[in-house]
Amino acid sequence: MQSDSKYIVRFKEGILSRTEELHRIRTVVEDEAVRFGFDRETAFRMALAVDEACTNIIKHSYSGNPRKKFEMEIGTGNDRFVVVLTDYGRSFNPNSLPKLDMKRYFELCMRGGLGVHIIKLVMDDVAYHITEAHANELRLVKYLT
Amino acid sequence: MSQFTLSVRESPPARVIDLTGYLDAHTAPQLEEAFQSLLNEQQFNIIVNFRDLAYISSAGLGVFMAFVEEVRSNSGDIKLAEMSPKVYNVFDLLGFPMLYEIYDDEQKARAKFSNEGSC
Hints:
The complex is a heterodimer. Chain A is α+β, with helices and mostly antiparallel strands. Chain A has a single domain, classed as Histidine kinase-like ATPase, C-terminal domain (Heat Shock Protein 90, 2-Layer Sandwich). Helices cover 36% and strands 26% of the residues of chain A. In chain A, a hairpin with a 5-residue loop joins β5 (125-130) and β6 (136-143). Chain B is α/β, with parallel strands linked by helices. Chain B is built from 4 helices and 5 strands; from the N terminus they run ββαβαβαβα. In chain B, α1 packs parallel to α2 (58-73). Chain B has helices spanning 28-40, 58-73, 85-93, 106-116; strands at residues 4-11, 14-23, 45-56, 77-81, 102-103. At the A-B interface, α1, α2, α3 and α4 of A face α2 and α3 of B.
């Protein structure tokens, strides 16, 4: 979190890399987003974006290994709501994917890639970097405007 | 906690899949199995009723993408009906109304199948 962020929620014990956890994650994100001031519809979409990011960690970064854990922190600073996801699996920068052309996607009946597309459509900033501890850190930001 | 249930019923000339709850990466395999069973039975006129579905993520959307080509190549279709505004917004966000017919009433989807004359 940046220095002006006010910490809201942190799963201290980490989250098991299991799809069963997605429901709880969405509930926390949506409730905190509403509490911060977003309308229900926007909060629903933010929870969707975080679901997609967590699903990518579970399925791709950790390749479905249910014993692995990742971390989630939610913070706020001025007018922004920030979700930071940290995992220790395979590196993947969502910004390395080209923007999806949905017309072409449908014409070719393509598969996959929708999650990252949703994250970029919903969130205002999507930043990825590898920490000094060699963790993958994904920072999702939504501004109250 | 039961996050998601589905059931399949006959509604000639289609089969209807009723969805309830939350369709995400955890529950999407159940829908995938239901579609696969229908295709194994050579049932290609499929309506999905979303009336009681509260949530869908890309894992759920991906199931429709996985089967639409095979269904249409067998002169059938996957028609979608009775979505809540929240669920419709997810489909709309990605432009899915370009590819799928979405009806506010299951009856209209069934009538479209009847008018198309396929069975």
